[in-house]
Structure formats: structure tokens, C-alpha cells
Amino acid sequence: MDHQRQQWRSKMGFLLAASGSAIGLGNIVVFSANAYKFGAGAFYLPYLLALIVVGLPVMWLEFGLGQTQQRAFPQALKNIGGKWGEIAGWWALLNALIITMFYVAILGWVLGMWWKALVGSLWTASVPLKGFAMTSLPNPVGSFFSLISSWNNILFVGIVWALNLILVFKGARSIEKGVKLMMPLMWIFMLILVLIGISQPNGIHGIYLLFTPNFAALGSADVWNGAFSQIFFTLSLGFGVMTAYASYLPKESDHNTNALIVSTMNCSFEMISGLAIFTLLFAFALTPKASTLSMMFFVVPKGIAKLSGMQQTMGVMFFTLLLVAGLSSSISLIEAFAAAIIDKFQWSRSKVILGVALIGILGSFACALPVIVDKKLATTGTMGLTFVDFLDHYASKYGLLLVGIVECLIIGWVMPAHKLREALNENSRIKIGAWFDVLIRYIIPIILLIPVCLTLWGAIQGGLYGSKYPLGSFRWMPWFSAALWAGVTFGGAFILTSISGASREEA
Ligand code: TRP
């Protein structure tokens, strides 16, 4: 055994870090955007079902993997599934690294909007625009497009990467310090936002809509597809993150309870932010185009702009909330990736972190390229944002779910499942029954295969993105980004597996 493997100082530190990873932009805006798109009350039933049938069991699995193997994701899977297990592990981490690249680019835009909220340019009536078909746009849409079409946004993205580096530099130790500060801040800001939302006239109608089940919508495959994809992204499953974090706890930890706590914290945060956002929507009669980015950069700021006298404070608070929630997620993947490299090659931590960050920064810059490709703003506007849209599509709609299928198959059939369950149960107050084995071996892989097939079917019928994407002369973008995503994940996984690691004396 390597004796210098780092550990969390406290169980609290682990729980805060793991829930910090789970709670992110996904909870604040993706959930609300999905819920809105799928008829609000229609969404949370499939969502809760996805949580219980897939989310919680897979979190048990990922925690149990880290606990029993005491290694990051690729090495942990290698111990069970050999070479192909290791390939799957690297593939997962590279897929997650691509998510991190655009996620941090989006956090850079959050910082840019934070700045505009602070100095006040977000609250003016309209913003002049260069390079687009329209000469000016009303706020906050105008502020956003002027941000992403200027080189300044690269600076903001760079700053967010620097913050990430500071937070992960010392590994579990600096992460633990960071989340102890960030998580309470995040909860407090969110509760303030809810109180303000609820106290608006008509705000209460948003709550009714959010919590009124709409059984008719349950017949739509899209709703189910959305719920199962959402649960993976929001709980940080399929990223290899939970395994790395759990491997920093002693073997005799109670992970059955830990997973329950983390997923409950995550999902209650999601419901609470649903309250905040739906009350704002109703108070100000806003009807969002249901996309995540429009929810966070247009719709909510539009509502905040109407809180007279409070717009600056609330705007700065909202973007701080997004930034803090996002940072505690992005650091988890940087750590998980670095942990895997260190486990395999035994290189020094600071070198590995800097290397991972350098690659990540280049990817994030590509996602923030301010080149205007869509002058009429039919969709995204800039090359960077188009890139984000496609990478997100491949990495979240296919990547995360495929990782979920593969990890269930490897652990379910090769380990096999009952061994992991017994290891988990040994130290836990809550005992998982044999139904877990059935879920992991059969039910979850089949359930996850359905949304993957639906997305694939959409691509076969309507183009790579599932529908026509008005890109003008940039028709190569969907193919280019698909090739890049596949090349990086498959190519990288094979290369990283084939290089032999540093030898270490095994116990
Ligand atoms: N769970 C996060 C959310 O809901 C997403 C996330 C998890 C993530 N791990 C990550 C994003 C690593 C980027 C990198 O927003």
C-alpha cells in the first residue's frame, strides 16, 4: 500500500465535498429549465423515481468502489475488470474532463455577468452590440451576448480556472477548507432567494405549478429521458468523482448512510432552488425558452431586475451563488482526474495538477471563443457557445449514461454485485438487500440504455443534435465536435491504459 494516500480530515469534510460536487449549476438551473420544459409538476415524479431506482444505487456503487479499492476510478475498475476496466475508467474521466472544460467556460460567463451586475451595466435598458445583425439588444440578453462575443470573456474564464487551482492545489486538504466556507454560503444565499421569491405577489402560483403533478405528461418519453439524464448529471455520477472522493475515507466508513445524506442534500437543494426560480417566474410572468443558459443568464436576471431597489444586491448574490456552486463541482473532477494520474504514475501532485489545468484551460478557452458565427442569433451567436452546445450534447446525453451502464456491468457481473454490497453493509447501519444486485446487473443498465437509444434515434432521424441546427456556413461544427469528443475519449483512454504505470510494492 502507498502510505501517503491523502485522507479527509473529517467525515463532515467528505460529506461537504461530495455534496458540493453534486450541487452545482445542474441543481440551480438545469433542474428548473427541465421542470419548466416538461410541464413542471410532471417532472418531479419521474425525477424522484430516477433518484430512487438509479441515482441512489449507483452512488452506493461508486462510493463502494472507492471504499473497497482505495483507488481513483480507472485503477479501481482495473482491479475488478482488468485492462478493459481501466479503459472504461479513463474513458469516463476524459468524458468528464470535456464536461469540465465547458462547465468552467460557463462559470467564466457567470463571473462576467457577476461583474456586470456589480458595476450596473446589467441593469441598463439595452446594450449596443458589435458584429451581430441587430445593433443593440435589451438587457440581460444584450449583456450576455456582448460578453461572450468579446475577448474579455477569456479573461473571466482564466480567473475561474485560477480559483479552481487554488482550491485543489493541496488536494483533500484545500478542498475541505474551501467547501467548509462555500457550502454554508451557498445554502444561505439560496434560502434568501427563496424568501424573496415567495414574498412576491403571485410568487405562490409558481409553487403550485411546481408541485402539482401532471399525470398526462408522464406518457411522454422525453420526460423520462430528461429525468434519467438529469439524475446522473446532478448527482455527479458517471464522472468518477464519487469513487475518488470515497477513496480518501478509511475503509470502515458507513457509505450506505453517506450516499443517502449526499443524495438527499442534493435533491433538496434542487427542490428549493426550483421554488426560488418558479416563484420569480410567476411573480414577473416570465416565460422562459427552456434552456439552461437562458434560464441562468436571461430569465432569472430579468426577474431580479424587477426587484426594485434590490437588483444590484440580488444580482450579485445570484451570480455568486452560481459561481460557488459551480466551483465546488468543477474542483471535484480536477481532483478525480489528478488522483487517477497520481495513482497510476506516482508523479508529484503539483505537476499533475498544473498539467491537468493546462489542458483544461485550453479546452475552456475553445469554448469561450468570441468569434461570431450566427449574426442573426438564431441559436448560439458565437463559435464558443456552439461548441459548448455540442460537447454538452455528446458528453451528457451519451457519455455519462454509457459510463453508468458499463460500471454497473463490470461491478454487477465481474466483481460481482453481492461482494460490493456485502462490503458496503459490513460497516453500515443501513443494510442493502439482495434487490441491489438485481438493480445493478439488469435493471439499471436496461433503464439507462433507453435514453441513449432515444438520443441515437433522434440523431439518425434529424442530424447529430437530434434536430436541424441553423449554423449557416458552420455546418462542419456538429461533425467536428463529435469527432473531437470521440477522439479524445477513446484515443486518450487507450493511450493512458497502454502506458505502463509506476511500479509500487503492493501490500
Ligand atoms: N453535479 C454538478 C451539477 O449538478 C455537475 C458536475 C458534477 C460537474 N461533477 C462535475 C461539472 C465536474 C463539471 C465537472 O451541476
In short:
This protein is mainly α and 507 residues long. It is built from 18 helices and 2 strands. It has a two-stranded antiparallel sheet with strand order 1-2.
N-to-C SSE string, H for helix and E for strand: HHHHEEHHHHHHHHHHHHHH
User: CATH topology, what is it called?
Assistant: Amino acid/polyamine transporter I
- Euclidean distance between termini CA atoms: 5 Å
Tally of separate domains: 1
Quaternary state reads single chain
User: Considering DSSP H and I runs of 4 or more, what fraction of the residues is helical?
Assistant: over 70%
Major sheet: size, sense and barrel closure?
A: 2 strands, antiparallel
Poorly predicted runs are: none
The shape, in one word, is globular
Question: Care to describe what's here?
Answer:
This protein has 507 residues and is mostly helical. The protein has a single domain, classed as Amino acid/polyamine transporter I (Up-down Bundle). The chain has helices at 11-22, 25-37, 41-69, 73-119, 141-148, 152-168, 172-198, 203-211, 221-234, 241-246, 255-283, 292-305, 311-345, 349-367, 383-414, 417-426, 435-462, 476-498, and strands spanning 126-128, 136-138. Helix 4 packs antiparallel against helix 15 (383-414), helix 4 (73-119) packs across helix 18 (476-498) and helix 8 packs across helix 11 (255-283). The chain binds tryptophan.
